[in-house]
Amino acid sequence: MKVHLLTVGDEILIGQIVDTNSAWMARQLNLQGAEVMRIHSVGDDLADICEALDSALKEADVVLMTGGLGPTKDDVTKRALAEFFEDELVFHPPTYERIQGFFKKLNRDTTEAHRQQAYMPAGAELLHNKMGTAPGMWMEKDNSVLVSMPGIPYEMKYLMEHEVIPRLKARFPGRPIAHRTLLTAGEGESRIAERLAGFEARLPSYMKLAYLPNLGQVRLRLTARGGENAQIQKELDQKARELSAELDSLVFGYERESLEEVVGRMLQQRGLTIGAAESCTGGFLAHRITSVPGSSDYFEGAIVAYCNRLKKELLGVRPQTLEQHGAVSEPTVREMAEGARAALGVDLAISVSGIAGPGGGTPEKPVGTIWMALADKNRVEARRVYAGKDRLKNIQYTSVQGLNFIRGFLLQHYQMAEVKDKG
What we know:
42% helix, Molybdenum Cofactor Biosythetic Enzyme, Chain A, 423 residues, Alpha-Beta Plaits, Maf protein
């Protein structure tokens, strides 16, 4: 099944909103074995919509269209459908009754615009939209299917899940497709690809590996098509285990897990608490840790010591350390980590200090130079990482590196079989 996704709305073309609908639909269709050939956005113009429909239906089995079904004059999708299919718009009483019922619950009267919303192309099969007033529309031409849905995401999702996908599966039975996603941190895409050259060469022809890099992380997606679904799932599980073994500790999780979720789970399993001392990240590392439900079980707090005065007063960094080495240095982050551990009363403390940019760099310490340290009662470990020149990306990248630093520290020094001594 070849699918073309078509979104309608000037607000998309001028960047007022982001087209999240197409991304969501593409993921769901992929799981059904469908091939999304093209994603196309068009403005609220009758001729442009008709032209886009003509092009899409010539190359695809299915066109899924979102947007332009509201009650205002700029919502022209239904008029375009009627013109394209050489159909007429007819009044649909059940739809108008639903619209009236919806507004009655809100203690509001319907307007003429709402009555106009109940006019539908005569040849359309209406799809019940439980989440809103505008129904979906199923239309066919020359063995191809067009489905028009509201652009409001939760309405579109309801129609896709309850009406559209079940009908498409019955109409276009396809080959099963399945994915397994492994999440890695600590190495870049090219280095991982080098390590996996042999693994990729051994993959069967119906299975492929995709690399999806992000800041400090790389997702690896294994995809298999064809055959019996149960057999595909079994083979993918086996290949995912082999892939994980090839990369060992670079793999931190699977599917949609986040690094902060994995780190939090590791701290909980080991009965450890952690705190943070942040400078260049301004609390963003603590934000990521506390974004996980239940993080209060292991995260005690953070000290954002952005200036040197607070590094000295709150974290106990010695004046001579700052004078001799500067705020962005190994000695300083070591003392910050030790000071945070003592001040917060935690088992582990992480510290970060760097030059986020875009200014402040020197030839010796250019923008993107980051130092971080981790302290427990027995040791302090430090590392330097290099980011780029974009301030926000540097902060985000540093948080990823910090979380992965914690993960590696726990793997190395706190085995699950150990009984923690809090003395």
